[in-house]
Specification:
The chain is an all-beta fold and 89 residues long. The chain is built from no helices and eight strands.
Length: 89
Amino acid sequence: MVHEIGAEETITYGRNDRFYGGPVGGGRFWLEEDGRPAAKLGGPEEWRSHGMIDVHTGDTFTVGGQTWKITEIVDADSVDAYLKAVRVS
């Protein structure tokens, strides 16, 4: 799916096929020692050389030529964890 700039998506555990060039999925969520929420994302073929990537609020990732910014990681220490991302370019 091609998203307009400003579009929002939610990423949970598992796979999200709504990303153009995806899928993108949450592989793990946790709280770092300093309490900052973090997530490990798996993604499309273009990420294969890096495997999964670690992200925090404010980080960006690119998939299918679209750049997304992590705006929030919610309940990182629970099985209901998810993150919100907004397309920035």
